[in-house]
Amino acid sequence: MADAPLQLFNSLNRQVEPFVPIHDGEARVYTCGPTVYNYAHIGNMRAYVFADVLGRALSWKGYDLKHVINITDVGHLTDDADSGEDKLERAAAGTDKSIWDIARHYTDAFKADMRALNIREPAHWSVATDYIEPMIAFAKGIAEKHCYEIDSGLYFDVSTVEDYGRLARAVTEEGEGRIETVEGKRNAADFAIWRKTPPGETRQMEWDSPWGKGAPGWHLECSVMGEKLLGFPFDIHTGGIDHREIHHPNEIAQNQAFCGCGGLSDATNSGARFWMHNNFLVERSGKMSKSSGEFLRLQLLVEKGYHPLAYRMMCLQAHYRSELEFSWEGLEAALTRLKRMVMAVERLSDATSDPVAEHPKFATILERFDAAIADDLNTPVALTALEDALALKKVDAGIKRAVVEHMDEVLGLDLFDLSREQLRIRPASAQLDEAEIEDALARRKAARAEKDFATSDAIRDELAAKGVEVMDGDPLGWEWKRG
Ligand code: AMP
Ligand code: ZN
After folding, report:
1. Lower CB count within 10 Å: N or C terminus of the chain?
2. Residues near ion ligand 2 (Cβ under 5 Å)
3. 104 occurs within a structural domain
4. pLDDT single digits (tens) 135-146
5. 188: CB partners within 8 A, 6+ apart
């Protein structure tokens, strides 16, 4: 059951709007992908958990999902607004690796993080450097009316399209002040479509174009891949909230120029009907920033012993439009919540899913779940509905299993494939391995059976000294945990 009409927040109009597909029965979604000059941090991964829940919700509601995620392997400068160096050129400088090796390495790492978070593969991965020819063709098509050439490249004149910056609503003097000026730009917000290689320099990635040797601007690639793979207008364009300020307004301006469209009071003139943005994951000590030595990668969470799906749970516990603060305590709480769900699901392992049978109590809970998802993907409320379904007593296990499976299609917590054991906290730095712990506990049990409490206490203390807490009578059924 998934009948509630889907409502989504459209950043372009700053309001919740009903989702009506442009092509009957289909949902076409483009998600700005990672710039592969470094590992993704868990904040970046929040953007893809959000896009995944959106995609799953659309499939769940019966739409045939066409999802594209791009890989930015060229064009993204160290500053979003066209100043600084190309992030990939900089990452390759001073190493013995080529830019292509670097892009491949971080693309693979990104895909591994996606899998670990149970994020579904998109129908298409599009790689920016595979689209250089179409980017040049796109730029040629808009150059005459909308662009001008200066020493550093071909620039887009934002005054040539209606409603520039509607998405950001920040095209004020103050807003523009943030954008570094480039010699010769007409408007502060104008941006590069094509960046010429400066005379006397060679870049690892450069191509011939009507404007000289160089590389495309970052915004161009998303316009081009969106148009080529999904066609304008498509249904939904997603990204993190930072993209609402520069990258997406610029993409929209290019799209308007390309289709010769008017203003943005008709959202489809922007190239997409919906523009959706996840809010940030924040961390007080600044570890999220990739410039700090140790930053918060999913791998770091795993090294500290947390199952990656605990992080997915953490994301789902917040609405995607709310800021979410990362803390280790918060992650542990999310892990515990997931563990409780998995324990409840383990009790259904022998049941055969029975989606046809009905039960009035489940119908009410499913309605609540559906309403929550339809309400701009309210996953925090959806999770409570899932917990209520798991807690129902004296109901047929087959129906319960079917209901929980149905809900997990949207949430993607992988509840039926996870075991409680997999969710044990397993830090890579642990002093004792699990076999040693189990062995000590068996010796302790034997001592207690013989009422040798001195030995039993000594074993408990030994374990405590090595960071392992013995948990007699734990309500979650754990015999021990790492301190
Ligand atoms: P990038 O690889 O820098 O292009 O970023 C990939 C995605 O992560 C983009 O959609 C960003 O908007 C998003 N993003 C960056 N930082 C965060 C954060 N701290 N929390 C959530 N999303 C983020
Ligand atoms: Zn993009």
Report:
1. C
2. 32, 222
3. yes
4. 999 999 999 999
5. 176, 177, 179, 181
